[in-house]
Model the fold of this input.
Amino acid sequence: MSPILLHLISSLAYLALAVLLWKDLQRGPNEPIGQSARVARALVAAPLLIHAGLLSQSILRIDGLYLGVGNTISLIMALAVLIYWIASLFHRLEALNAMVLFAAAILSWLPVILPATQPLENTQLLVFKAHLLIAMLAYSLFTIASLHVLLMALQERQLHSHNVAPLLRALPPLLTMESVLFKIIGTGFGFLTLTLATGVLFSEELFGKPLTFTHKTVFGFMSWFIFGALLLGRAFYGWRGRVAVRWTLAGFMVLVLAYIGSRFVVEIILQR
Done:
């Protein structure tokens, strides 16, 4: 079966599951999970496996790993779908799952639209592969956290205006959303710490030279300090609400500049 047809099947399946979850949202957040949501949750594995298979063909090639902008964003979305699917087993996250699946239906096409043309260097090293996988998990978790915190901000604003949109009414209570948010950020911070630690400890083996402060390194450590400060502020000063929104989005934007931003400039603007 051709890759284009598989992309179409995966994308349409994501979209159909998002519609099923959206349909279930009309029941309200306090109602038991409906049949359409149960079906959607059970079937997520099918398009996710197709998506993962397409990514493996696009990224894992004989002459190395091809992880350009398109493959990176598509991989982050696949991991986001997986993470939210697992989280939905413990929390009522149908509204968030619907949004992630809808985004995955669109962004899973990026490897076709923006194909990687050059393999990454040093991909024969096991430590580099581990470093890369951990980094992608960190990106996925912070992508989810950014979406999550934006929905929280909209939810809080509309609660104060007493005019809550149907999608936001279907979200879990703010306290539950906040609890989930900081679990995501805490886990993402752990993966980001491992990413930076492996980069520092194995810099010469990974990149053929001792650690140097490139823009990636600087932005990576800046995002680590921002998220670390947010977690400390939460633990000692009870930071929440708008403070959490600002710090989460600031950390995410700095993290995007650390890798995806630089790859976009190199591959799309400079076409190298």
In short: The chain has two domains: 1-120, 121-272. The longest helix spans residues 126-161. The chain has a mean pLDDT of 80. The longest strand covers residues 60-61.
